[in-house]
Design brief:
mainly alpha, 94 residues, 1 helix
């Protein structure tokens, strides 16, 4: 074997190793990218779930506020009716 042949063989081996290293790096990058996509999807799903929960809580609170306002209005009209009845009764029996 000549010196040139050995050098060429080393270069070929080096090229093969470089290609294998590049392929391994590509596979690792693809795995990291897939994991990142999965993590971001989970994060987005959690944000959506939190937003839906907040919306439902706000709707529940709004319904409760409306119900309480209606009850207060009923109570107000009831007190007004009692006051009018008492005033009328007072003036009738004077």
């Amino acid at each position: 074997m000549t010196w040139n042949y050995k050098l060429q063989q080393q270069v070929n081996t080096s090229n093969i190793q470089a290609v294998e290293d590049a392929q391994a790096a590509q596979k690792a990058a693809e795995r990291r990218a897939a994991q990142d996509i999965s993590d971001y999807k989970k994060y987005a799903d959690k944000k959506i779930s939190d937003a839906i929960s907040s919306k439902n809580a706000a709707l529940k609170q709004a319904k409760e506020t409306v119900r309480a306002a209606k009850e207060l209005a009923k109570l107000g009209w009831g007190l007004f009716a009692v006051t009018v009845l008492c005033c009328v009764t007072y003036f009738v029996f004077i």
